[in-house]
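ok here's M3 family oligoendopeptidase, seq below lol
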Amino acid sequence: MTQNIGLNYYKELIDLKDVEEFEAQLRSLLEVPIQSIADLENWLKDEQDITIKITEAMTGHQVDFYRNTEDTDIKSTYLHDQQVIQPLLMKYEAKLNEKFCASPYVNQLDEIRYGLMRRVRESKVKLFREENIPLTIKEQELCTKYSEIMGGQTIEWEGEEKPFPFIQSQLDHLDRAVREKAYNLIGSAYRQIKSEMDAIMDELVQLRHQIALNAGFENYRDYMFVVKNREYSIQDCYDFHENVEKHIIPAWNRLAEVFKSKLGVDTYRPWDNTAKLLKKPPYSEVSTLMDGVSEMLAKTDPYFADRFDYMREHGLLDLGDRKGKSPGGFCTSLPVSGDTFVFANFSPSFFSLIALIHEMGHAVNGYLEFSEHGPLEEYQGRAEIAELYSHGMELLLLDKLDQFYPEEEEFKSAQREELRRAFTMLFGPLAGDLFQHWMYTNPKHTAKERDEKYFEISKRYGLSPVDTTGLEEEIGMSWAGTLHYIEYPFYNIEYSISMLGALQLLENYQKNPEQAIESFKKGASADYNQSIAAIYKETGVSFDFSEPAVKRMGEFLEKVIQDIH
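and the structure came out like this:
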């Protein structure tokens, strides 16, 4: 697949190579006298103007690197940001936070508009330690090394070197032998880089543990809960883990029996636990994928399609697979331009179709937020909110999958697969969250113990109905393929929390499509200074992951899947 991947998609209004001028701009903010509430609000506006310029430039450089990890000039620019700019930014951010918190006018700021900012900045002042700056830079270097290793992975397939995502796409193949072959090749690929992955993760765990100790915490898990300003407790997370294991996994096991029966197999192996009932990939060329998704969005809401077509026209989508491209997919905001960029490294598969729809949920959310409130600032970006609109977009487009699967039976299979994905998004991220709780509260664990724990947790959740005999080692080391564990620690449970909200959105959509879409847009453009619960309420759903809520949504999901016949 080929795609035009021009680089002129972000605005570079600040020269990060000119370190002296960069530092002078930050220093000037520290020197501004604040002698009234009006001065403080003007200072905050000036600070935002500089911050969004820095953010857009650094985001653009990072995306450039993810798009081509093998370009030495791009890598040099990205590493300059991480090794030179980031330490300065951390130092001045701490000083600016101190200046803000020390101002006698802080408590006169409007609580609705500035309350969240004040709480976050006060938290950062308490957490900041000068000695953590080099540790954070080293952490980023390890993440960069991971991206380079994964981006350079190729696997021989029928005499040709293929990118890693192509092999992953073969897990959806109709032929069981092909799926098994792909699964084994992926396991072999992980085995080849295992020592490097173990070294990276070992060092990350120790670095992160030290960062937490320096900040006065017993472990990195406790530290991250404060960093993320979570609106729920650690115990709430453990309760959620248990609620899902109690109410969702039994339903998952029942559904697995249905899939096993449809496959006509005696044992349900890991390569059967994929979207394998679809006869072929939904597209072969990226252009076909984009044409079809545009149509699906247009049938849902004209604004959704307008944003997608705009992004396509302006080079804000990079969706194909190629060597040297970092793994995974994401949507990121460009706060100066007011745009969003979607990156994806996937070969043709059902998953890649859904992943694009998922990222467009983020993109629509980003555009609505910008049009209503201007640039979304870092302190406002809570993943429990963002993922509600990405999962929500997937489910709002559930009834339009016939765009890619026009035959009735294929259409039903595709819908079942998307709903099956909703199940996996309830327990998969929770398993990942539990894995990280264990890793960071047991920082002296060995690589062998880590693999064993990952297998144990995987078997309790997603692999509960799967025969894993003889594959314990392969499954145990497969954590290496999950970008979040390396680059976005403790960004997992948000997916599961938000999926409960998205299922409520689907329930509303089935009753009143127009109202559900309007509620989606209302919530996606809401003031992010509100609590998570308030924004969920504006979207027409509840921020609730208690046992009754988990049980009810699990039953609803199981019923919807069974009703497709």
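fwiw The two ends are 35 Å apart (CA to CA). kinda neat tbh
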